[in-house]
Amino acid sequence: MGSLSDAMSEYRAQMQKGAIQQAYRGLMEYMSALKTQLKAKYPEYQVSGSLYFGYMDMTYFSFTPPALKDKGLKIAIVFVHETFAFEVWLSAANRAVLAQYAQLIEDAGWEKYPRVDAAQNPDAILEHTITADPDFSNLLALSAQIERETLAFCADVETFLSTVRD
Description:
There is one protein chain. By secondary structure, the protein is of the alpha+beta class. It has one domain (4-162). Helices cover 48% and strands 19% of the residues. The protein contains five helices and five strands.
């Protein structure tokens, strides 16, 4: 990457075109609507009060079933800006719980979902790519896919954790 000055010149040029603002605003509105939709449909789940907008690195909100919340775990629905992918992550309320469950999953040899290297992503234990090529021309289908795969991920994690001692 070049200097900050070069990067800012490119940023200015791209901002003057207007597409970045439109896309970013649209993405934030979509993520907010998805969060609201899931919160209404699954009132028993713990859903974060606000959307984390990020620094154009990731945008996410938590969507956690009661059984995982009781263990200090969280589920995050994440849009990763660099890869342009939607992912679902198993995370935790704090670093100690994260380390505990990362170790438990590693010791059990559970490999249904990729374990996350803490040096590369200190916020997640497991991650699953929902879609690496989201179709923003069909938001209903995209939302249904995110919902379906997130619920399956939650169920898989809950089932696994019910078979091991924590």
